Fold this sequence. Notes:
By secondary structure, the protein is an all-alpha fold.
Amino acid sequence: xxxxxxxxxxxxxxxxxxxxxxxxxxxxxxxxxxxxxxxxxxxxxxxxxxxxxxxxxxxxxxxxxxxxxxxxxxxxxxxxxxxxxxxxxxxxxxxxxxxxxxxxxxxxxxxxxxxxxxxxxxxxxxxxxxxxxxxxxxxxxxxxxxxxxxxxxxxxxxxxxxxxxxxxxxxxxxxxxxxxxxxxxxxxxxxxxxxxxxxxxxxxxxxxxxxxxxxxxxxxxxxxxxxxxxxxxxxxxxxxxxxxxxxxxxxxxxxxxxxxxxxxxxxxxxxxxxxxxxx
Length: 279
């Protein structure tokens, strides 16, 4: 990553902020803060300097939790860069693939990520106020979308450099086999769009958190909390974009992309063993 990005994303050298204290502190700054619950109203003009300190704490917390998830994936990016530098062709990884091995590797990876994702959501300020049923519904509705966002840096030049296990290298080819070519094309088009935003790592961390509550979910019982958290994290995302002098276009693009990402989650959840065929 470029040094300029690192400068923007470095978390201040202080003890980790607890989820409860972060939410309480921001609430104290938010008593006289009028925010629309409609995410379509997200715009550069929707935050005020009086909330800057509370917003920065929530932003730091999002980034801290993002880093905890990514700890187990950092080596994957270094490996991907190495493969690119050596000119390794992914066609080499298509041979001798066994259907059971591929499916088990994908399932094991999703299961491993799900455990990390559950912890991420539970520790995000405010989300522990959902009961276990609502939390499970929220995670289910956002799992594949957020998985893709966490690993978007492993999508390079239209190829997916995720190593699933010691035997199975993921790739665009395997994504087509697991999810279908139509869904796979949508996935890679969305990654290309996200890359075009040139988000800093911290912006990406806040974007993932905001996406969790960016859209209504009929199955969730505590809809009031969902709207309440949308208010908070719309402001955190707005704060982070304004901090980096983003223009209004990024806000419109994010809104449009979030709608597509939420639809994509439903498509990916339909993947099944019976539909997996390897050439």
